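FORM 7B - TANDEM STRUCTURE REPORT

SECTION 1: FIRST PROTEIN
SEQUENCE AND TOKENS:
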Amino acid sequence: MPLSPQTRADLASALEEAAREAGEIARGWFREGDKTTARVWNKAGGSPVTEADVSVDAFLKVRLSQILPEAGWLSEETRDDPARLDRRLVWIVDPIDGTRAFLNGIPDWSVAIALLVDGAPTLGVVHAPAREGFYEAQAGAGARLNGTPIATGVREALAGANVAGPKPMVDALARRSGPFGAVTKVPSLALRIARVASGEHDLALVTANARDWDLAAADLVLAEAGGTLSDPTGVAPVYNRPEPVHGVLVAASRALHPRLVEAMTSDDTDTRRPAAAG
């Protein structure tokens, strides 16, 4: 059974408090325009992690488990527990999404948290402390940025659109859709998608190998703001699978999304080439 409206509202309030506190923990190590003061090391595969990531993860594991002791857990910085696959409720957490940006003093990083109910994001927060941006959503109740309701843009043409994504993907898409307007690469995937929800970007592109924790919270924020996240053929992401890994993804308003899918599927080369998530 879905959560009752009152239970969901209570959980949303508790989640907001936890996310904001997590953001303050991370900010203690962040130095805009300079290297982080946190210790940094590389995980298997070469991706960086800092003591800030680990500290925020540990805080959220304790706090969110207190809020919902029965919920499963999936986080970038915690060893995966397959028990989550049998849970109706699952927390999906990226303690710092955009770690490379964080450690290099670039403010486009976020704390991303989603609560899945029966596999579907039901609560979501993308908190960008260094940008003073707090995106939040409840399923069926809309999305907000810093307490104000948000909605995607109304553009219906790809040509001239503002896009966030890695340059090779943007260039490949532009060859089939016409030139874009402003092009930005936002290091935090969650923040990249959330900015489509608020209308700052018209669309966002994500290369293969993103994980549930990069996407679930922003997916809900986007959906509640009138947008769609999907693979290039229009199929929505599925969360809480044994391997929480995704292929190429695209995000846009519901008006623009069909045009984006059409352009992405017009050529099977370039945009679907495997790469590190970005």
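SECTION 2: SECOND PROTEIN
SEQUENCE AND TOKENS:
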Amino acid sequence: MQEDSPVQNENTPDTTVEQPGRARRRNRLIVVGAAALVALGLGGVAVATSGPDRPAPTAVSLDAQSRAEAASRADRSARESSAPASPSASPTVSPSTASASPTPTRTATAKPKPKPKKTTRPTAAWVDPMPGASVTSCYGQRWGTLHAGIDLALPSGTPIHAAAAGTVTQAGDAADGYGNSVFIDHGNGYLTHYAHQSRIAVTVGQKVKAGQVIGYEGATGDATGPHLHFEVHQGMWNQIDPAPYMRAHGVNLGC
């Protein structure tokens, strides 16, 4: 007995054939999707574009892209770090510092210099009666008579000084050609005699010091010109050579 087979209409869809095909396509899509996911996880993805004017799909490596982005960031950070820093604002002075008044500087007070002590030279016991004078005649014989003193010449009016301290015993004309004369007793047994003065500056009994002015040079009495006739007496009118006596007292009269 022959079984009747179903009659298949041409317009009736063949579900028997289409269902396995759809299953196969579905399985294929699942496999392709899984493969795409695996490829994406391993570092690559296929980018596809459609259309006649667009280029063919190009595969881009995600690992290469990551490295490029990292390099770009590194390059950008290098440029940013090398950029010149903007000038900082000028420093401002703290109000407390600016308003503070400067501390006055103490200046050292100069100590007054001590005044030098005045030192007075002790007056020599004996001095030159007319310093700087020229010697025109010494003690000794002259024209057959004794020249009993030393003649000292300077211009007329030159001051005459006491040879040593003492007391004036005579002041005036002494006669015997001496003219205006002064005698000083030095209290040691010796006297000094100053003759031919133009003017006398002391009086009898006056105390004088060594170097004190007692008169002025002249030419009174027997004199050929202005000069001082200086004598030393050991006792009154006992004339001795003045040169060695004065040298013994530290004065050189040039004879």
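SECTION 3: OBSERVATIONS ON SECOND PROTEIN
The radius of gyration is 73 Å.
DSSP finds four helices and 14 strands in the chain.

SECTION 4: SIGNATURE
Preparer initials: ____
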